[in-house]
Structures are given as structure tokens and as C-alpha cells.
Amino acid sequence: MSESRSPSEKNLEKKLYEGKAKILYATDNPEILLTRYKDDATAFNAQKKGTIAGKGQINCAISRHLFEMLESAGVPTHFVDCPTPIEMRVKRLTIVPLEVIVRNVAAGSLCKQTGIELGTVIEPAIVEFCYKNDDFGDPLLSEGRIYALELATPDQVEEIELMSRRINELLTDFFKQCRITLVDFKLEFGVTSDGTIVLGDEISPDTCRLWDDTVEDPKARVLDKDRFRQDLGNVEGAYQRVLEKVVAIA
Ligand code: TMP
Ligand code: ASP
User: Fold this and answer.
1) What pLDDT digit, counting tens, does each position of 200-230 carry?
2) Ligand nearest to the CA of 186
3) Which of 78, 108, 170, 227 qualifies as a FRET site for 184, CA 20 to 30 Å off?
4) Ligand 2 atom, smallest distance to 48 CA
5) What's the Cα-to-Cα distance from 103 to each of 19, 100, 111, 142, 226, rounded to whole Å?
6) 5 CA from centroid of ligand 1 (Å)
7) Whether 22 contacts 202, CB under 8 Å
8) Tens of pLDDT along 148-176?
């Protein structure tokens, strides 16, 4: 569907923020915001830019299914509903400015920064925190830096790590049923008006590394944004394949 013909068009005047992959709008309810998923894609802190046809709709649908799965397993998320295929209503959160990365298999910056070989199984999974700040390129943080910058309290960090490990178990099991390996992923959390920490943002091939277990070739099995980052081709096809597998299991 065309992104310019949204039934929620009246919200377009209430744009609060435009990010790289989503636009955030106010709604008539102060506790609820509307996110609109875009086809735009960026990598390497927006140094590489492009469009992935249909990505907004695919990522909105994948995120919806995964948020519903997590909610039904008792993990609080910001998800409310999807009024259109590219829009998601979410609870208003005060975002904790951390990007929480969970790694089950070595890839990406872990390999680049440490020399660990691509594909090495990481057991137990690594949970690490980056500063959500484009001006500094989302740098990896230590706990000391988190507290010095007052990004979160020690109790919040502990709760976010516990929630991330639980989410990792649930997502890993879910993707295993899809015959996909969940290599690593990024989560964002926020705090609701009553102080509860809930999962925010999205869970999609933009924010996860996903390898097709039914394919052996290391490049052909990549079903995530690495296809865009590394110019591997058929990005749309890979995202569509993830959606089909997710829908078949959800
Ligand atoms: P990394 O290996 O580049 O640090 O990425 C780890 C995971 O985090 C990977 O699944 C991609 C995801 N990610 C984002 O969602 N947003 C980002 O800005 C970056 C750098 C990574
Ligand atoms: N989303 C990030 C960006 O553009 C990086 C990435 O996903 O690789 O900047």
C-alpha cells in the first residue's frame, strides 16, 4: 500500500519525531502514540541510505506478531494495536537511552572489535549496552559510564538485563520453530507513566540478525539488514521470507 494514503492521515499533523525507520505521531489519547513504519533503510549511522520496498509493512507485521507473542508470555511491551498495515499504536514511554544488544552467535561489531570468528556460539548470551546517541555513533558503554551519564539506575539496568535474557529465550525458541537462528538483536526499553519498564521500539530484520537454518551458504542464509549493509542483494525477498515464516508459526 502507498505510504501516502494512510487512514490515519489526520495524525500526520501531529508529528513528534522522525527517526531513520519510523515516524512518531501524537494521538488524541496522551498515553498513546502512533508509529508509522517507513521503507527507508540506513546503515553505519546513516552514512549508507536506501529504500527497501515494502519494508515498512513487513517490519510492522513482524514486530506485531513478536510483541503479541512476548506479551502472551508475560513480557510487557509498548504494543497496543495496528490501525493500518504500516502503523502501530504504542504506549507513550519515556525512553531509556540505551540500545541493548543480545548476542547468541558472534557477528557484526563483536567480530570486528574482538577478532572472535563469525559464527562462534556465545554461551551464555552476551547482553551489552550502547549509548543511544547518533552524535557519538551509539558507543558501547560500561556500567560505570551508564551511571556517570545517568542513563539508568542500577535497579533499571538489572531489570532490563533480566528482561532482555527472558526475551532472548522466547525469541530464540520462536525463531527455532521458524527454522531461523537468532544470531543477535537490539532492544530498546522505556518507562510508562506508572514507572513500569516495558519493551519499546521494534523487533524486525532491521534490528535482528537472522540466519535461515534451511540454507547452508553463509551469504544466502542471511535474512536481515546485513543484506542491505553488505550489498548482498534481494533484501526485500529476505524480509518477506522472515514474515512468511513468522506468520506460519505465530
Ligand atoms: P552490531 O553487531 O553492529 O553491534 O549489531 C548488533 C545487533 O544490533 C544487530 O542485530 C543489528 C542491531 N543493530 C540495530 O538494530 N541498530 C543499530 O544501530 C546497530 C548498530 C545494530
Ligand atoms: N540503524 C543504524 C543506522 O543507520 C545502523 C545499522 O542498523 O546498521 O544508522
Assistant:
1) 999 999 999 999 999 999 999 999 999 999 9
2) 1
3) 78
4) 4
5) 24, 10, 11, 17, 15
6) 31
7) yes
8) 999 999 999 999 999 999 999 999 999 99
Angle of helix 55-72 relative to helix 154-177, nearest 10 degrees, comes to 110
**How many CB atoms lie under 10 A from the CB of residue 159?**
15
CA 207 – ligand 1 centroid, Å: 6
Amino acid symbol at 76: P
Residues of the chain with pLDDT under 50: 1-5, 7
Is pTM, for the whole model, over 0.85?
Answer: yes
| Residue listed under C-alpha cell 510492522 | 60
- Residue 227, ligand 2, Cβ within 6 A: no
Compute the distance between CA of residue 201 and CA of residue 58 in angstroms, rounded to an integer: 15
Q: Are 49 and 41 in contact (CB under 8 A)?
A: yes
